[in-house]
Write a structure and sequence with these properties.
Length: 451
């Protein structure tokens, strides 16, 4: 009996030790999970201090690369030391749309019967490099073709840079032109605002850019030899991501020797921050035809006001292309040919652009399938100087939803002059003369997974 009692006591002691060890492991696991969740929350709170137009970009980057909330990127340096600092990622997106129009349009439908269906939007591959003071970014995109067109693909970004730490950062190659309040201008939406379609937002060109911050002042200075060029598509000069002056006829114009400057001054109050921003751009227009060379310039004011989770971003821009008339039916030079997404269009050579975006960042913890939502309403208008030209307006109401590597836009857009909304007007110069300026509607859902 005594022996049995000793054995029972020993078993009890061993069980207590195991329970104590399991309790410590459970406590450590809970602590790790709490730390992981806190890192996610802090990352999202940090993003809320970024100017509005950069918010979506930074959220995608942070959440898509976070080991806690999204997929891990490939890091070749783990296997090959010479590639330390290089990460590989990408994205794949699909698009669903419908509208109150019936005609098929190369800019709005995947085929003649595609209204109300879902189709592949884009596949992209990203390379990011950060080692010591050296930086780099590469992004290549492949898009599905529309109607009878084949798929098209192009370089989105490709630059190498150096971080001088307290003396700024320089980027050399195809990089984003510093114009407007941030990466996507004022916009949070998938459609962007009308600045983008005139080449004054999220524009990629080939050149060198220097960026620095001194106290509350951030500024950029840049020189661009040319646009990013046309890559692979069915058009001769429009297979590219951002809108540039293109020459589909061989006797038009192309961009050369462009200079940019942007400054943003951050002001902080008790419950509000205001980023006072201004941008300026000047460049030359090289003629490929009998007409003379030209020039172009643009100036813009773009404050960003943030109050708690609210962001209000207005922007007012004036631009002008000073060229000779070279397009059919335009002897006075009131139209210029632009192109992107393997699709050329025409735009007014002189106009004001007024735009505004109101958004709210809301973190969600009550449900598991979404981390945050950003509802927004945006309006922009191209107000042309040429006599007889109608304005081109775009209004978008929607929300962006994020969860780990997933990013989803749900939007309703109404426009009386945008190539991507409707086709009842016959697809005639909607950024230019816009002769039939009837309002049309497009409902859009874009689903993206970033890895």
């Amino acid at each position: 009996m005594a022996s049995a009692s000793v054995q029972a006591a020993s078993s009890t002691a061993e069980l207590e030790q195991k329970l104590e060890a399991m309790s410590k492991e459970l406590a450590a696991t809970k602590a790790a999970l709490q730390a992981s969740e806190q890192k996610r929350i802090e990352a999202e709170k940090t993003v809320q201090n970024i100017p509005s137009a950069q918010k979506v970009t930074e959220l995608e980057a942070k959440l898509a690369s976070s080991a806690d909330t999204g997929p891990s990127k490939i890091t070749p340096g783990d296997l090959i030391p010479a590639l330390e600092g290089l990460t590989i990622g990408g994205a794949i997106r699909a698009n669903y749309f419908g509208g109150d129009y019936t005609d098929a349009s190369p800019a709005t439908s995947a085929d003649a019967e595609a209204d109300g269906t879902i189709a592949l939007d884009v596949f992209r591959i990203n390379l990011d490099y950060n080692r010591d003071n050296w930086l780099g970014k590469f992004e290549y995109r492949i898009y599905q073709g529309y109607l009878a067109r084949d798929s098209y693909h192009f370089l989105h970004t490709g630059w190498l840079g150096y971080d001088f730490e307290d003396a700024g950062v320089v980027q050399v190659g195809v990089n984003r032109v510093p114009f407007g309040p941030g990466a996507y201008g004022i916009s949070q939406s998938w459609f962007f605002d009308q600045h983008y379609y005139i080449g004054l937002s999220d524009d990629m060109d080939l050149g060198v850019k220097y960026s620095d911050t001194k106290g509350k002042l951030s500024y950029d200075l840049a020189y661009y030899f040319s646009d990013e060029g046309s890559w692979s598509g069915s058009t001769s000069d429009s297979a590219r991501y951002s809108y540039d002056v293109v020459d589909e006829t061989g006797n038009g114009y192309e961009e050369r020797n462009q200079f940019n400057a942007r400054a943003v001054y951050a002001m902080e109050f008790e419950d509000m921050t205001i980023d006072l921003g201004a941008s300026a751009q000047f460049g030359l227009m090289k003629s490929n035809g009998p007409q003379d060379d030209g020039e172009h310039y643009a100036v813009s004011l773009h404050p960003v006001l943030k109050w708690n989770n609210w962001t209000f971003s207005p922007q007012l821009t004036y631009y002008k292309y000073d060229i000779d008339g070279y397009l059919a039916g335009d002897p006075n030079g009131d139209l210029i040919q632009l192109g992107a997404y393997d699709f050329p269009t025409t735009a007014a050579t002189e106009a004001w652009i007024a735009a505004a975006s109101l958004s709210y960042y809301h973190e969600i913890s009550a449900v598991d399938w979404v981390d945050y939502v950003i509802p927004y309403v945006e309006y922009s208008s191209i107000m042309k100087e040429a006599s007889g030209f109608n304005d081109s307006d775009l209004m978008t109401i929607g929300a962006a939803w994020g969860r780990g590597g997933w990013y989803i836009y749900t939007e309703v857009a109404r426009s009386n002059g945008n190539d991507f909304v409707g086709n009842e007007t016959g697809f005639v110069s909607r950024f230019g003369s816009n002769p039939n300026d009837g309002w049309q509607t497009r409902f859009n859902i874009n689903i993206g997974y970033y890895f």
